[in-house]
Structures are given as structure tokens and as C-alpha cells.
Design a protein that fits this description.
Elements (H helix, E strand, L loop, with lengths): L2 H27 L5 H24 L6 H23 L5 H25 L6 H20 L1 H25 L4 H5 L1
Length: 179
């Protein structure tokens, strides 16, 4: 496998996982007072994750073409969702809950595709588990948006911490990046 692809993937995983874990902690510690602030941070996270996913797809030399296309399209959609959330932080929170639910589902689908076709330096089981958890979280938010607004901060915080931690488990060994 191309060492540039492995290094690019490692950076993508580390940055998005660390941001996800940090946002998850904020969401759990200050659920009500920081709802709008965290909504903005989720928007930033979606933009960064989307951009990094597109970058990983573009620079993913040596990876399966279906993963690169899926990753690029999903990255663009996730980034657009983040930009929409950032354009007007006073967007009704119900709409934001729907965007967040869709983002979790889209990210979960991308992880499942990666788990089934394989992507650089990752293990299939954690990738599929991460994808399933993202999809389940997204469906819960979409099915009960009113209830989700009440528990959104804590639920999203837990989901982000789990997804971030699972993503860190996917890191290829440093030795693979040096080859």
C-alpha cells in the first residue's frame, strides 16, 4: 500500500477522532447552556470531517476506487451539512437535529462501505461496528426529533466519544506509514 495513503488516512482519523471526542465531552458536561455553541462546533466538525474525507479520497492512492468515490461524495455532503449549520446558528434546533441525524447516518454508511470493501490500514470489524453505531444514532435522532432535542447534547456527546474512540482503534500502525 502507498505510504502516502496510509499517512493521509492516519491524519484524517486522528484529527476527526480527537475533535469528535472533545466535542462529546463538551456536550456531556454542559448540555443545556451550550446547545447553540455546540451546534456551531458540530457544524465546524462536519466541515472539517467533510474536508478531510474529501482530501483522503483525493490522496487515497492505492485504495479501492469505490472507497475513494464514496469517501469523496460523503465528505462533500458532510461538509455542506456543516456549512449550512454554520451559516445561521439560530436555525431551529429541530432542523439541526435532522441534519445531525442525517450526518450520523451518512458517516455510518461510509464506514460500512469502508468495512466491507476495506480501506487503508483498518480492521473490518471496528469499522463496521463504528458504522452501525453511527447509523443507529442517526435513526434515533430522526425518529424522535422532539425527544432528541431534550437529550441531544448527552446522546451526541456519548456517540461522538464512542465514534472517536472507535476511529482511533482503526489507526494503521506507524510502521505501515513508513514503508
Amino acid at each position: 500500500m502507498d505510504s502516502r495513503a496510509v499517512r493521509t488516512f492516519r491524519v484524517f482519523v486522528v484529527v476527526t477522532a480527537v475533535v469528535a471526542i472533545a466535542l462529546g465531552v463538551v456536550a456531556i458536561v454542559w448540555p443545556r447552556p451550550s446547545l447553540v455553541v455546540v451546534a456551531l462546533l458540530f457544524g465546524v466538525y462536519l466541515v472539517v470531517a467533510g474536508a478531510l474525507r474529501v482530501l483522503a479520497a483525493v490522496r487515497g492512492h492505492g485504495t479501492p476506487r469505490v472507497w475513494r468515490w464514496t469517501s469523496g461524495v460523503v465528505g462533500a455532503l458532510v461538509g455542506i451539512a456543516g456549512l449550512l449549520a454554520l451559516l445561521d446558528p439560530t436555525i431551529p434546533l429541530l432542523v439541526y437535529a435532522v441534519l445531525a441525524g442525517a450526518g450520523f447516518i451518512i458517516e455510518g454508511i461510509a464506514s460500512l462501505v469502508g468495512g466491507f470493501v476495506g480501506h487503508p490500514g483498518s480492521s473490518r470489524v471496528p469499522t463496521v461496528v463504528s458504522g452501525v453505531l453511527s447509523i443507529v444514532g442517526g435513526v434515533v435522532v430522526l425518529v424522535a426529533p422532539g425527544l432528541a432535542l431534550t437529550v441531544f447534547m448527552v446522546f451526541s456527546g456519548i456517540a461522538l466519544i464512542v465514534v472517536g474512540a472507535a476511529a482511533l482503534l482503526l489507526l494503521p500502525p506507524r510502521a505501515a506509514a513508513r514503508r
